[in-house]
Structures are given as structure tokens and as C-alpha cells.
Amino acid sequence: MRFGPLPVLAVALACVPAVAIAAEAPDDGPTALFQSESVQSAGSVTVGGSRIGFHAIAGTLVVHAKGWEDTDALDAKTSGDDDAPKGKAEASMFYTAYFKDGAPSASRPVTFLFNGGPGSSTVWLHMGAFGPVRVQTADNSHTPPAPYGMVNNDASLLDASDLVFIDAPGTGFSRIAGPDKDKAFYGVDQDIDAFAQFIGQFLSKYNRWNSPKYLFGESYGTMRGAGLALALQNQSVDLNGVILLSDILNWDLMPDDPQVNPSVDLPYIVALPTYAATAWYHHKLAERPDDLGTLLKQVEGFATGDYAQALMQGNALPEAERQRIAAKMAAFTGLPVNYLLKTNLRIEYGAFQKELLADRGLTTGTLDTRFTGATLDPLSKVAQYDPQGSAIGGAYIAAFNQYVRSTLHYGEGKEFKPDIDVYGSWDYRHQPPGAGKPLIALPNVLPDLAVAMKNNPTMKVMVNGGYFDVSTPYFEGVFEMRHLPVPADLQANVEYSYYQSGHMVYAHLPSLHELHDKVAAFIRRTDGEAR
């Protein structure tokens, strides 16, 4: 199916000429590397049959590195070298803000949204979930090449909140510069600090300090969001709510090759229900119930019961029990018993996607296992690409580039970077509350979120996920929150919503509307409680 040409929009945007807003010089004066800038436009979107007029601002705010000075530069400055770099590294962080016309800022909620990566821009949430326009993509197959269609997004969250989409330093139109700039911004705590600075500046610039405030993070953005809840609180910013989509707050739950990281079994336990959901979707189960929820309750019980106990025994597991567990796994996952025995009952990340439909020469998606694509190498051990990323990535990037330049009137002469390659070089050390220094361990921001909830017991947390997401399995989020170190009365502040979709829940249109309705209700409910 081919979609309509890009210029044909069902949403009324850029109704008035763009208004350039004067650039603001940062406090650093002549030594500043960047200057804030912004441009304004106007438009409308129809949500739930009601027209919402808004004005949009696309621009940048400048934030500074915290505690990261370049030693060589300092040595050069003290030696009198006039050419030495001066000051700290800076980041010019790009954002697009949508403000509902006629709504008083004192009582109007504002939600800050960001994707993750690390190293991803926020084009996905902007153009797929809650912005005023949405790019049209195929539901579970490859979207044909351009021209791509953009339509009025009747699931935009503008009916419940003003929206601020933020690109992380170095991504999108955001840029970094200055001494030791990569070390200054590409890390767990550095990233959290940059976003905290950005939000503080935004609240001042647009006079939104008294507005109900929300964070919406997706994927690695959930780690950022949980850390930000405490970081903002330390700046006297109490949040009304934190909304997590496809969460990963404890990286010890991330899967790895069992040959490389033996004795770490939790990742295989929390991923098993997603494998079962995928096998159910692709009709690979011999006894397939009509209701997915019924199946998942059985698999969750098995995963945390017999399966977990079997894995904990390691090589001491009796052979008869090994056979029984493998047979049960086969019934739930659709994989052959012999294959599961060869894996030592531990399905390596990427292996399930490669093996489930191997008889058809297909690989399932990782972010969304509903998607399939031709297997690149039938002899490979694991999947070599993600069919969902290949299926929809081009549409999102092309549509946003057209939209931001022609409608928001931003980006002339500038390259938009949908993602940057920092995953392998990211500084994953994190200093949780109570620790004297960053820990040399995989990051875990559950303590940050727990302290933020204890300090602000009215703050609510909403957890969302897709059943067909292997990258951040839905049951991983359940497991994390069951271990959130808060008392029983605060555990009630956490609510869960799951959808028959993948990592990008909004890529499935019915799930997008369901997500909108639940998030909008969450904001309205928690906003009312706060006042």
C-alpha cells in the first residue's frame, strides 16, 4: 500500500508566518560556544473530534558540563597558552515545544518527552506518538519508500498537556562542543545532569514553574527519566508524574551471551514471556489459547517458578529435570527441544528472533517481533538486524526532516542526526543516592526513583510496555517495579499498562490510541490530585 504525498496534511499547521525569536546569549558571554535560538509557528490538531489551536517553538537551550574539565586544557591555561580551550564543554539542546492556545500556564500541565538509545534523538515519540502530525507506516511490514504520508495525529497528547520534545546532546539538532565534550555529556549521570539543566532553564524561560510537570521517557529514556526525577527534586522541582515506556531501569536484566556472562540468569527469566507472546502471535504453538493474557499468566508463573529454580541449579540440574524444563519451554516458545537443550536452557539475545521462523527463512523483529524480514545469513547464531528498524526508520526520518524544515521553519543548513554511535563508548557508571562515588557496575536507577518517591509521596509512576518487545521485555519492567525499594503505601503509586505491540507501542495504531487514552487519563487524574 502506498501512502499519500508528504505535503497533503490533514492537520492545519504553519497557519501564520514563522516568527524568529532573538537568540539569547548564555551567561558565559564571549567565551560561550553556543547561543540559544528559537523560531515560532502556529497550527492546530484535532483530537477526539475537538480542534486544538497551538503555537509551536523549535529551538535550542545551552547547558554546561558539570565537573568535567579537560586536564590538558587546564595545564595549558596555567602555563599561559593563549590558544588553550577555555571553560567547560557545552551542549546546545534542541527542542520542539507545543503550547495550547488560550490555556493559562499556571494550571496547564507540561510534559517533557525523550527517546533513549543512548544516542537516539526524539524523532520517534515526536512523529509516531504524541506530536500534532504522525507519519503513516505499515503496521507490521516494510513501509514502501517515499513519498511518505503525514496525517493529523488524533492521538496527540496536546488535549491533556503541553508537550516538549527534547533531543539528547549530540543527537537530532543538538550539538556538543568544548574541551573533553564526549566525556562531558555521553554517560548516565552526565546525561541526567544535562536534561535537568535543560528543564530548569525551560521552566524559567516559559514561566512554567507552577505548572503540573511530567516526564515521559522511552527505552533508555526511562533510565534517564527515573534518574531525572531525583535530580530535578534536588533542584526543588517536584514532579506530578513519571511515565515510562519500554522501561529498563536495571541493566543487570539486560541479556548477554551465556558463554560470556555465566551465572547471570535473571535476563532469561524476564524475557521468556515475550518469547511466548511472539510464538503465540506467529501461530507457532501447538496448543495456542485464543487469549494472549491467559498464556502469559502461565508463562510468568513458570518463568519465576520451575524455570528460575532450574537455572539456579546450573550444572547440578538433574538430566530428567533438564529434559522436563526444555519440553515446557518448547511448548511455550515454539522452539525445538533439542535446540533448547543445546542452549543450556538459556536463549541468547538475538537467537530467538533468528530461530523461531527459521523454517521460512525469516527473522523476527527485536524491537517489535510482529515484524519479519528475510534472514541475512541462515547459518548465523543470532539475528543480524532488526526488521522493524529497517521497515519504518526511513519513513520517520524523511517525514521529520520535511516537517521541521517546511512547517516548523527550523534547520536550514543543519544536519539532523536521528542517532549517533555512542552506545559502546557510553559511560555507564552511575552514582546512586547514598553512594560516595559512581559505581563500577551496570547502572541501576531504581534507588533514584525510590528516593524521589519517598521525598515526594504524591508523585505517581506509570509503566507501559509492549508484549512483543525483546529489547526491553515487558516482564522485565514488572520485575523491576516489584523490587522498587519503597514501602507498601508508595507501591500503590505505580500503575501498569501493556499493549499488543512492541517497543514502540505507538507503531501499532490501535495501541497508539490506547496508549494516548491511558496516559491522558493518568495526567488528568494526577494533575487533579496535586491541586
UniProtKB/TrEMBL annotation:
Superkingdom per UniProt: Bacteria
Signal peptide range in chain numbering: 1-22
Sorted UniProt keywords: Signal
InterPro entries listed in its UniProt record: AB_hydrolase_fold, Peptidase_S10
This protein's name: Peptidase S10
Organism whose genome encodes this protein: Novosphingobium album
Source species taxonomy: Bacteria, Pseudomonadati, Pseudomonadota, Alphaproteobacteria, Sphingomonadales
